[in-house]
């Protein structure tokens, strides 16, 4: 039997060669960013039980890890610090001898321009209360937080950060940081803004990894409500006006619609952050042999790219780079 079907979409699926030829979405390690945790006061890498396969590194032990990434084609890194001591004002976030500052200096002297070092600019890993800003009477005060965040960004730039990545979701943080960087002469230090950062339960494993759980309340007073997409566009618009170089949507997979809208509405590079909970869910299901890890990871990364992300921040950056080259 033959039918007079003119259009047979299956023709374009009939061999790997034709499928590759017509594939619409490209994924390449050069668009990945690998998040790294650096801990002060440890002498060897320390496993993170909530994120199997991810470790906290002592600053001096990061060079091997980075060499491994570079060999796979991943050269951008997002650095998070875990300090020995925390206080009300998060002073280790902007101390010249802070764990991130030491790490940035060390990595810049070893790798120079071969790596792109992005410093996460926030206070939650450094404050005793675990909030992302300045706390008074149980409230996170916006404008006092801006001063501390700006100070943090400048000290990260001084230590060698190529980019800073403000993630506190304080109003005006990009403007405050841009002005402070410029005033200190760091015109070329870029800003990767966590613009549409939602108050997500998928950050749980990260808070264990970075020891940054809020000690009271939650982050809903500053991070976004996940029911809102128009508001996400407003947040991105503000960050663009305030001087962001790259904008971010976070988390990634449950927010593909937001990624698409941001991509369509603005002409800046858009980054998407596949967060700790997204990582750990895939890890746990594959460890239980319920899903095929490689296949699922690549499917999620292609989806994030297809939705419109130019850059993907993922704990799977090295694995994905390896799998893509196979
Ligand atoms: C906080 C921050 C968070 C992440 C990065 N920086 C989340 C939070 O604790 O609110 C999450 C990253 C992840 O889950 O992988 N400034
Ligand atoms: Zn924070």
Automatic annotation (TrEMBL):
<feature type="binding site">
    <location>
        <position position="122"/>
    </location>
    <ligand>
        <name>Zn(2+)</name>
    </ligand>
</feature>
<keyword id="KW-0456">Lyase</keyword>
<feature type="binding site">
    <location>
        <position position="124"/>
    </location>
    <ligand>
        <name>Zn(2+)</name>
    </ligand>
</feature>
<feature type="binding site">
    <location>
        <position position="235"/>
    </location>
    <ligand>
        <name>Mg(2+)</name>
    </ligand>
</feature>
<keyword id="KW-0460">Magnesium</keyword>
<keyword id="KW-0862">Zinc</keyword>
<feature type="binding site">
    <location>
        <position position="219"/>
    </location>
    <ligand>
        <name>5-aminolevulinate 1</name>
    </ligand>
</feature>
<dbReference type="GO" id="GO:0005829">
    <property type="term" value="C:cytosol"/>
</dbReference>
<feature type="active site" description="Schiff-base intermediate with substrate">
    <location>
        <position position="250"/>
    </location>
</feature>
<keyword id="KW-0479">Metal-binding</keyword>
<feature type="binding site">
    <location>
        <position position="315"/>
    </location>
    <ligand>
        <name>5-aminolevulinate 2</name>
    </ligand>
</feature>
<dbReference type="InterPro" id="IPR030656">
    <property type="entry name" value="ALAD_AS"/>
</dbReference>
<comment type="similarity">
    <text>Belongs to the ALAD family.</text>
</comment>
<dbReference type="InterPro" id="IPR001731">
    <property type="entry name" value="ALAD"/>
</dbReference>
<keyword id="KW-0350">Heme biosynthesis</keyword>
<dbReference type="GO" id="GO:0006782">
    <property type="term" value="P:protoporphyrinogen IX biosynthetic process"/>
</dbReference>
<feature type="binding site">
    <location>
        <position position="276"/>
    </location>
    <ligand>
        <name>5-aminolevulinate 2</name>
    </ligand>
</feature>
<feature type="binding site">
    <location>
        <position position="207"/>
    </location>
    <ligand>
        <name>5-aminolevulinate 1</name>
    </ligand>
</feature>
<dbReference type="GO" id="GO:0008270">
    <property type="term" value="F:zinc ion binding"/>
</dbReference>
<feature type="active site" description="Schiff-base intermediate with substrate">
    <location>
        <position position="197"/>
    </location>
</feature>
<dbReference type="GO" id="GO:0004655">
    <property type="term" value="F:porphobilinogen synthase activity"/>
</dbReference>
<comment type="subunit">
    <text>Homooctamer.</text>
</comment>
<feature type="binding site">
    <location>
        <position position="132"/>
    </location>
    <ligand>
        <name>Zn(2+)</name>
    </ligand>
</feature>
<protein>
    <recommendedName>
        <fullName>Delta-aminolevulinic acid dehydratase</fullName>
        <ecNumber>4.2.1.24</ecNumber>
    </recommendedName>
</protein>
<keyword id="KW-0627">Porphyrin biosynthesis</keyword>
<dbReference type="Pfam" id="PF00490">
    <property type="entry name" value="ALAD"/>
</dbReference>
<dbReference type="InterPro" id="IPR013785">
    <property type="entry name" value="Aldolase_TIM"/>
</dbReference>
<comment type="pathway">
    <text>Porphyrin-containing compound metabolism; protoporphyrin-IX biosynthesis; coproporphyrinogen-III from 5-aminolevulinate: step 1/4.</text>
</comment>
């Amino acid at each position: 039997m033959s039918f007079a079907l003119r259009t047979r979409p299956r023709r374009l699926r009939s061999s790997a060669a034709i499928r590759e030829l017509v594939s619409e979405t490209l994924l390449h390690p050069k668009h990945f960013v690998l998040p790294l945790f650096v801990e002060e006061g440890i002498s060897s890498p320390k496993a993170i039980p909530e994120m199997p396969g991810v470790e906290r590194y002592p600053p001096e032990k990061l060079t091997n890890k980075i060499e491994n990434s570079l060999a796979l084609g991943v050269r951008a890194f997002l650095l998070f610090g875990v300090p020995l001591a925390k206080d009300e004002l998060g002073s280790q976030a902007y101390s010249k001898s802070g764990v991130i500052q030491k790490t940035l200096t060390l990595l810049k002297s070893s790798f120079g321009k071969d790596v792109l070092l992005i410093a996460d600019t926030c206070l939650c890993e450094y404050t005793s209360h675990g909030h992302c800003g300045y706390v008074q009477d149980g409230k996170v005060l916006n404008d006092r937080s801006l001063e501390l965040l700006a100070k943090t960004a400048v000290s990260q730039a001084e230590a060698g950060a190529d980019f800073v990545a403000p993630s506190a979701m304080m109003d005006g943080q990009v403007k405050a940081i841009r002005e402070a960087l410029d005033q200190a002469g760091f015109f070329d230090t870029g800003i990767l803004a966590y613009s549409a950062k939602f108050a997500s339960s998928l950050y749980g494993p990260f808070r264990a990894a970075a020891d940054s759980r809020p000690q009271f309340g939650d982050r809903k007073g500053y991070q976004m409500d996940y029911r809102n997409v128009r508001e996400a566009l407003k947040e991105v618009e503000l960050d663009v006006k305030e001087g962001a170089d790259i904008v971010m949507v976070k988390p990634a997979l449950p927010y593909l619609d937001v990624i698409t809208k941001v991509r369509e509405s603005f002409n800046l590079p858009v980054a998407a952050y596949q967060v700790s909970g997204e990582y750990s869910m895939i890890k746990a299901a594959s460890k239980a042999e319920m899903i095929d890890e490689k296949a699922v990871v690549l499917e999620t990364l292609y989806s994030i790219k297809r939705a419109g992300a130019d850059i993907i921040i993922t704990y799977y950056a090295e694995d994905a780079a390896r799998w893509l080259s196979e």
